[in-house]
Specification:
Arc Repressor Mutant, subunit A, 168 residues, elongated, 2 strands
């Protein structure tokens, strides 16, 4: 396969060294060689994944040549996505791309009921807990979830043990 992860990383790192300016690959890759074609193909792949600027690769078609395109270096320039990809911490994309998770109160209620039913509580206590959970309003379900978080923080040692034993 012409795609080469090591080469792609090398191309990105070289372009990042001259950011925000372009990187001139013509000194390293001679037009018409297989190395040139491989480098351009990998740069084109990076362009398709929006890690480099669209002007990085020039695509042209010969007149009368159906579907035949030629690819060559344009103005190879890494973009913000490419820089963040190289960053060990995910760059600004990781900071700005915060994901908010919302759990529907009814789904949360069902999760709680399932946990109660799977617990080792006596049957009578299970029925009582399920009845209480089923009668709670959405507002009370949200309040209960906050209390569970507080309970976790109040028992930080147990919480840390639980977190450390989560399978990865």
């Amino acid at each position: 396969m012409i795609l080469d992860r090591k080469l792609q990383l090398e191309l990105l790192e070289k372009m990042s060294s001259t950011y925000p300016n372009l990187y001139d690959f013509s000194k390293e890759y001679k037009h018409g060689t297989s190395e040139y074609d491989t480098a351009v193909a990998n740069l084109y792949y990076l362009m398709q994944h929006n890690l480099v600027q669209p002007c990085s690769v020039e695509v042209s078609s010969a007149i009368g040549a159906k579907g035949i395109k030629s690819f060559q270096f344009g103005e190879p320039t890494i973009n913000q996505n490419g820089i963040d990809f190289l960053a060990d911490d995910g760059g600004l994309s990781a900071i700005l791309g915060v994901v908010t998770i919302k759990i529907d109160p009814e789904q949360y209620r069902q999760i709680l009921i399932t946990r109660v039913q799977e617990s080792n509580l006596p049957i009578e206590q299970k029925h009582q807990a399920v009845a209480v959970l089923q009668s709670l309003s959405y507002e009370n379900i949200k309040h209960l979830s906050t209390k569970f978080v507080d309970l976790g923080w109040d028992n930080l040692g147990s919480l840390m043990h639980l977190i450390q034993n989560i399978p990865t």
